[in-house]
Amino acid sequence: MESINQTIIEAQVIEALRTCFDPEIPVNIYEMGLIYEVKVDEAGAVAIQMTLTSPSCPAAQSIPAEVEQKVRAIDGVTAVQIDLVWEPPWEQNKMSEAARLQLGML
User: Fold this and answer.
1) Which pLDDT value is given to residue 57?
2) Is the pLDDT confidence value at 49 over 90?
3) Residue 1: what pLDDT?
4) How many domains does the chain have?
5) 64 with 49: CB under 8 angstroms?
6) In angstroms, how far is CA 20 from the centroid of its own chain?
7) What does the pLDDT look like over 62-92, one tens digit per residue?
8) What average pLDDT does the structure give for the chain?
9) What's the CA angle centered on 84, arms 54 and 95, to 5 degrees?
10) Of 51, 58, 37, 38, nearest to 91 (Cα)?
11) Which of 9, 24, 33, 94 has a CA positioned 20 to 30 A from the CA of residue 102?
């Protein structure tokens, strides 16, 4: 069972992720569906499983580094682990309705 603190930190992590953008797409990585999982343990360690739109994404180095920097700055976070995965591959159907609307896909 998650503690209140874990729930608060998880919400703050999601808000931080909403401030990270792929430089080529005007939608944040959370709404793009690039974040597969966010876990916060009792000690405040955050594990994020994420992907990118493709393995050849030009921002493959900068986006995970930006995510780590922004999450590490959250009060109560004691550690950050970013797991960049390619399975399952990202597809446009992972985008939120808001992201599709913003990109004119609805």
Assistant:
1) 86
2) yes
3) 66
4) 1
5) no
6) 8
7) 999 999 999 999 999 999 999 999 999 999 9
8) 93
9) 55
10) 51
11) 9
- pLDDT of 39 > 90? The answer is yes
Can you give the length of the chain in residues? 106
Give the Cβ contact number of residue 31 at 10 Å: 22
Q: Is residue 22 assigned to a domain?
A: yes
User: What's the longest Cα–Cα distance across the chain?
Assistant: 42
Backbone angles phi, psi at 72, to 5 degrees: -60, -30
Check which CATH number belongs to the domain holding 74 and give it: 3.30.300.130
Looking at the predicted structure, is the pLDDT value of residue 55 above 70? yes
**105 in a domain, yes or no?**
no
Q: Which two tokens stand for residue 19?
A: 């401030």
Residue 82 domain-assigned (yes or no): yes
The residues with which 80 forms a beta bridge, in sequence order, are: 46
Element (H, E) at 101: helix 97-102
